[in-house]
Amino acid sequence: MRRKITVIGGGNVGATAAQRVAEQQLADVVLVDVVEGMPQGKALDMYQSGAVEGFDVTITGANDYAATAGSSLCIITAGLARKPGMSRDDLLRKNEEIVADATRKFIAHSPDAFIIVVTNPLDAMTEVARRVSGLPKNKVLGMAGVLDSARMRAFIAMELNVSMTNIHAFVLGGHGDTMVPLPRYSTVAGIPITELMSAERVDAICKRTATGGAEIVNLLKTGSAYYAPSAAAVEMADSILNDKRKIMPCAVYLEGEYGIDKLYVGVPAVLGANGVEKIIEIKLTAEEDAALKKSAEAVKELVDKLGC
Ligand code: TXD
Known about the structure:
It contains nine helices and 14 strands. It is of the alpha/beta class and 308 residues long. The chain has two domains: 4-142, 3-Layer(aba) Sandwich (Rossmann fold), CATH 3.40.50.720; 145-303, L-2-Hydroxyisocaproate Dehydrogenase, Chain A, domain 2 (Alpha-Beta Complex), CATH 3.90.110.10. The strands form four sheets. It has a six-stranded parallel sheet with strand order 3-2-1-4-5-6, sandwiched between helices. The site of 1,4,5,6-tetrahydronicotinamide adenine dinucleotide has 31 residues, from helix 1 and helix 3.
């Protein structure tokens, strides 16, 4: 039997993630959304692309969770975007409801699966999935750092006119204004970027990375980024399901690491067959440590408002 990945939320990130899973033949895909007909339509369209693209997995669309039974992993992208007149707290409550409902229904059919959360506010929604699923912390994680560091890698490549595949970049902290790009640990073919460009350019790249999501929202006007976010979530799924043990920055549940307790914050972790295999604690300067703690404070403020 082939393994199965469920993607909850068939919008921009969810549908693109489903397509990437299929094109990489990572697993069969079940796409779930509350909108009637939409996940079924997108799934059928995507499945038909397999004849041209040459993949052999199945893609099923559904409005309920029966078809998700026996999934190895779930990517939760379901949620609302902030609408005019809606406060961040309103959004927090609404998306908490959506993520809690999705988690409860999914886990009833796949009690041992891994959950990768994408819905914003990311770190708080990952905590919702952990609490509601009752899964151990190694099985529930959030996608943000892979995306943020992909953005930083892209900006470094643009600056130096070199291949992105040569570049590693590290971004820590919560997903939001308080994220912490780490130029010291960002390298091109092993060379720290601080050796390759001026302090001003490094600073400009860090700032552009931290506002990378907003830059795309301002251009698109009707939504937020989804090509890079879906690629990032699927890379995490691949590292877990194929036991690749890649080190990736992701939102993981900290219990004392980095001096932060019982909170999801973005830090580097090894992702393998057991999900979060190991959290890597790197030495931070006093300034970086203060920025990470500030970012964790911002996450805690939201988590304290959760109802679950
Ligand atoms: O780095 C990151 N973590 C992020 C997070 C990067 C990009 C996007 N990020 C967040 O992901 C974004 O702020 C949203 O909270 C989610 C999904 O973004 P997307 O761009 O895909 O939003 P869409 O296109 O509006 O899709 C959301 C879908 C839509 O089809 C709804 O009908 C569906 O979610 N939805 C549900 N599906 C299933 N179950 C329930 N309850 C439900 N409610 C809404």
